[in-house]
């Protein structure tokens, strides 16, 4: 149940190196991405008419270093993805089925639904076949790439994300600033409870550059959920005490942070272990990862399964690790939402078992 990713020639892969040193939050080494000149006055190279890039597309250039090297954002096999460092992996875009709902084996959901479909033909990644425009917005899917979000020439923002202004030579114009965040150095290991991205402010606002308020009234999604709001005292209490369905009230605030369900807080650090407080906020990235996952919509867990142990069964896709273990663990919605005790119950269409709105 998998498709293998196409690779670039070994000679091109050899230019990969330490991405942090290469970019240095400023103008990178030009020859790392571009051919300096043509041959006898003639432009040469995989993209001679597109900026003399060393690979077929801008995203292919990024993946020369980042696919399986620095950051490992792609990998090779969707059943054996790279270690999770925070954003998710683009390798899941190559899956042939992500549907783990009942009967999912007979109703496949292709990897196009796994997350952001960056166009990198040299690595087997194509434009989203389902949406011509970003859900909730107007960014053209055919133009989506790594450099739609990240500035390849570097800036001082978190992960070199674009701030307000034109993107990709005018393909789109962002109106919101880059988010305030900090992450571990690229390529230094997987995320964990004491090593993770610290989201401090502006995350959902920045996602809105392309997606607007997708899950709010008029945003285009059939599923409604508050976003970019302070967590209520009830939700913060639930988050801090919840330690899985087997221990739903055993947690303490000082050790409650779960990387699989992050929140935004001005005091957050990359080693924070504390759960949310009065100033903590819900963001888009509380439920979704930025790149892609083996669940539809880049879900941090599969929103269609009643038990996390069911992930991957119907589809044959990679099962997202269960942070709490146990065969009866329900969806991670429970980190914020009160759910029925005992085995998961039948949920309303499109919602996980036991789902209750967090804001009343």
Keywords:
360 residues, little secondary structure, two-stranded antiparallel ribbon, 4 strands, 11% helix, disordered C terminus
Written overview of the protein:
- It contains 6 helices and 4 strands; from the N terminus they run ααααββββαα.
- With 360 residues, the protein is mostly loops.
- A two-stranded antiparallel ribbon has the order 1-2. A two-stranded antiparallel ribbon has the order 3-4.
- A hairpin with a 4-residue loop joins strand 1 and strand 2 (172-174).
- The longest helix has 9 residues, at 58-66.
Give a quick rundown of the structure.
This protein has 360 residues and is largely without helices or strands. It is 11% helix and 4% strand.
Mean of all residue-level pLDDT scores: 86
**Continuous helix count:** 6
For the biggest sheet, the summary is: 2 strands, antiparallel
Overall shape: globular
């Amino acid at each position: 149940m998998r498709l293998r990713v196409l690779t670039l020639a070994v000679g091109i892969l050899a230019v990969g190196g330490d991405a942090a040193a290469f970019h240095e939050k400023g103008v990178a080494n030009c020859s790392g991405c571009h051919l300096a000149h043509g041959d006898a006055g003639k432009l040469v190279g995989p993209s001679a008419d597109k900026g003399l890039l060393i690979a077929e597309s801008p995203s292919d250039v990024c993946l020369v270093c980042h696919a399986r090297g620095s950051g490992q954002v792609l990998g090779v096999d969707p059943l054996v993805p790279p270690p999770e460092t925070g954003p998710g992996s683009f390798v899941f875009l190559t899956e042939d089925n992500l549907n783990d709902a009942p009967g999912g084996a007979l109703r496949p959901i292709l990897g196009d639904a796994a997350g952001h479909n960056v166009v990198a033909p040299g690595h087997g990644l194509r434009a989203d076949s389902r949406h011509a425009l970003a859900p909730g917005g107007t960014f053209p899917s055919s133009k989506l790439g790594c450099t739609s979000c990240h500035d390849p020439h570097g800036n001082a923002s978190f992960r070199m994300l674009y701030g307000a202004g034109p993107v990709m030579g005018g393909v789109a114009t962002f109106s919101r600033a880059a988010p305030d965040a900090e992450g571990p150095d690229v390529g230094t290991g997987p995320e964990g409870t004491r090593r993770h991205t610290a989201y401090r402010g502006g995350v959902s606002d920045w996602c809105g550059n392309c997606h607007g308020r997708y899950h709010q009234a008029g945003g285009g999604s059939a599923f409604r959920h508050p976003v970019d709001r302070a967590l209520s005292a009830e939700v913060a209490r639930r988050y801090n005490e919840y330690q899985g369905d087997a221990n739903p009230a055993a947690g303490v605030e000082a050790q409650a942070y779960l990387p699989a369900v992050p929140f935004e807080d001005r005091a957050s650090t990359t080693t924070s272990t504390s759960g949310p407080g009065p100033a903590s906020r819900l963001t888009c990235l509380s439920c979704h990862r930025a790149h892609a996952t083996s669940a539809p919509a880049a879900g941090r867990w599969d929103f269609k399964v009643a038990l996390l142990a069911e992930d991957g069964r119907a589809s044959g896709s990679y099962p997202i690790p269960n942070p709490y273990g146990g065969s009866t663990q329900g969806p991670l919605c429970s980190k914020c939402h009160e759910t029925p005790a005992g085995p998961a119950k039948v949920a309303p269409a499109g919602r996980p078992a036991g789902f209750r709105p967090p804001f009343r």
